[in-house]
């Protein structure tokens, strides 16, 4: 069973394919999914039975009724980045720097603490593991 979906204006066609033998082996149970965008335009259609064609025999009493589950999924498209505000802010900061209004008046340690602290920790750790600088107790002899 092939399911074709033609999109208006684009001239494209999408296909969803479901083999009859997989529908037969799933005892006529399938899952039909329709995907829409926020405006309700059709994005996609799929049909899934959940079984592969293995050649299994299904008793006739299990093939009396179709059991189709229909799911409608509405896709929420995330908003794009607000580039106009970012560009305006960058231009404003550039103009402030050119006028000298936004000078960085922080101290040396306030500016570079993230580089100084790892260096100090490294020096403390390497100094603690170095036994040469420590007095051992053999100096009294």
Automatic annotation (TrEMBL):
Taxonomic superkingdom: Eukaryota
Major localisation: endoplasmic reticulum
Entry keyword set: Endoplasmic reticulum, Membrane, Signal, Transmembrane, Transmembrane helix
Topology term for the membrane: Single-pass type I membrane protein
Subcellular location field: Endoplasmic reticulum membrane
Residue ranges of the TM segments: 112-129
One Gene Ontology CC term in the entry: EMC complex
Family label: Belongs to the EMC10 family.
Protein name listed in UniProt: ER membrane protein complex subunit 10
